[in-house]
Amino acid sequence: MTEGMKKLLIPVAVILVCAIILTAASAGLAGTAASNAETELNEMISYLLPGGGEFEEIEYNGADSKITNVYKGEGGYVLAMTTNGYVDEIKLLVAVDNDGVVKGYTVRDIHDTYGLGLGVQDDLYFLVGLMNSKGDLAVNSNIDAVTGATISSSAVVACVNAASKFVQEAGAAGVLTGTADGFMGPITVSVTMDGDKIAAVEVVSNSETPEIAGAALEQIPAAIVAANSADVDIVSGATYTSNGIINAVKNAISGTSPEPEPEATPEPTQAAQTAAEAYQGFGLSNTVRMGPGSDDTGTPVYSINQVFANTLFDSEGRIVAIYVDQLEYATPNYDGAEMPHFSGWPGQGGYNNDSNHDAVVDGTTPDTEEQFTEEVAGWVTKRDRGETYVMGTGTWSEQMDAFQKLFVGKTVDEVEEWFAKYCSDANGRPLKESSSGEGDAEKYAALTDEEKAMLADITSSATMSLNDSHGDILSAIRASFDNMVPVDLTLG
Predict the structure, then answer these.
(1) Rounded Cα–Cα distance for residues 293 and 312 (Å)
(2) How far apart are CA 23 and CA 368, in angstroms?
(3) Which residues have C-beta within 8 Å of that of residue 152, sequence separation ≥ 6?
């Protein structure tokens, strides 16, 4: 095709655009030595893809060695590229819109022969041939090489084709971000693409419970990369978290949020646990204590202990979180300070009262509805009694907290097994070398040194009984398991 014929076929508007690009590029390159390189680059990018908005550099981990840097804007991408020309490397910028259409090109560095290879940087008609292509150019087929510069022209065309293909295959998106609902809240992932291949998936933020969701958070991203697809199997026991990661990846790649498939609500039984991620159970145990003993008049002291256990279990029945509290109230002839009282029902004559807790009865409580109401309203739990409920080691709350920490990760069966092996059969307290209950010495002697060290650690902060007349904590925990129901965090 002659130069005259080419001029007739090229629309005037396209020529003007290309001329502007060439002029701007020349001006930018001329001032490079005297200006900041980063500023010059930003100016070049804005000339190549006007209206592209603010550009930011994104990481490129692809296999195409011609692509050295990728800059992303709202309107498209500008790729910094390096290729081999006839004499030496050619460094150029290629602008591509979000549809993969080439919108601009400029050479930033070239050392080819003047009048020949150098033509690839300022030949208007070569630039026009590159414009609006979509990775389908071939020298001497649908684009002519610059006269005397076939090798360099082919190198530039290869770069332009690669840039367009890169954007079309979504590789230029670099690290994509997606979000979807998990079990405890939103899960956000980053997805690194290499062309149409998923190169990496990372969970960047989540509110999931590690004890429940840890396996899914680790395994699902790796499975997606291995399969090069978000359609992978969920991790057993972490359904919601697995689907959250999967849907977040789909959201990153497609920009849409898939609707999670509805799941059947399982029954709160041991066999059905694999169908849900977590279960919550509330357990209550009630025990009556005859005593301690009687007051100075021979009237018995009575007390009632109610233990409450609120427990979160995972799909395998392991304790993820637990909170235990206890309410104890006694007849008012009990001589301990801070103990909540119960004198009985109105009309029963009241009950002996040791008002100053000196082990001597001072009279009886009023037999009135007001007294009954006041006593019940004043009941507080052992945790609420705080620093006033001091035990041999710390407070009741501190000891219970130590046991709760010990129970996390165990099933209720394992908690009961731990109690049976490491606590006194006489009083239900953790064994110590000095334990003196019936059979304690033999039971302690049968333990390994490692087990004894574990008990020494436990008893440094928790020595109270888990099951005696002061309260049956174990039964409350067991009841919380028996009463558990699937946790449903769906709102609305």
Answers:
(1) 38
(2) 101
(3) 85, 86, 90, 110, 112, 117, 119, 120, 146
Q: Provide the terminal-to-terminal Cα distance of the chain, rounded to the nearest Å.
A: 69
Tracing tokens 């620093």 back to the chain, one arrives at 387
- Whether 213 contacts 278, CB under 8 Å: no
In the beta sheet, which residues pair with residue 202?
Answer: 190
Taking the C-alpha atoms of residue 102 and residue 82, their distance in angstroms, rounded to an integer, is 17
Contact 198, 208 (CB under 8 A): no
Tokens of 326: 């206890």
Helix/strand/coil (H/E/C) assignment for every residue in 152-200: HHHHHHHHHHHHHHHHHCCHHHCEEEEEEECCCCEEEEEEEEECCEEEE
Return the closest-CA partner of residue 419 out of 437, 431, 432.
Answer: 431
Q: Is 482 helix (H, G, I), strand (E, B) or coil?
A: helix
pLDDT band at 9 (very low <50, low <70, confident <90, very high): very low
Contact 484, 314 (CB under 8 A): no
Instruction: Tell me the whole-structure pTM to 2 decimals.
Output: 0.47
C-alpha 210/C-alpha 83 separation (Å) is: 48
**CA–CA separation, 432 vs 420, rounded Å?**
14
Quick check: 104 and 23 in contact, CB under 8 A?
no
The vertex-156 CA angle with 151 and 158, nearest 5°, equals 95
Is the peptide bond between 292 and the residue preceding it cis, with omega within 30 degrees of 0?
yes
Report whether 89 contacts 82 (CB < 8 A): yes
Q: What is the pLDDT of residues 368-397, one digit of tens each?
A: 999 999 999 999 999 999 998 988 888 999
Residue among 14, 28, 11, 23 at smallest CA distance from 101 = 14
pLDDT greater at residue 291 or residue 147 = 147
Look at residue 395 and give its three-state secondary structure: strand
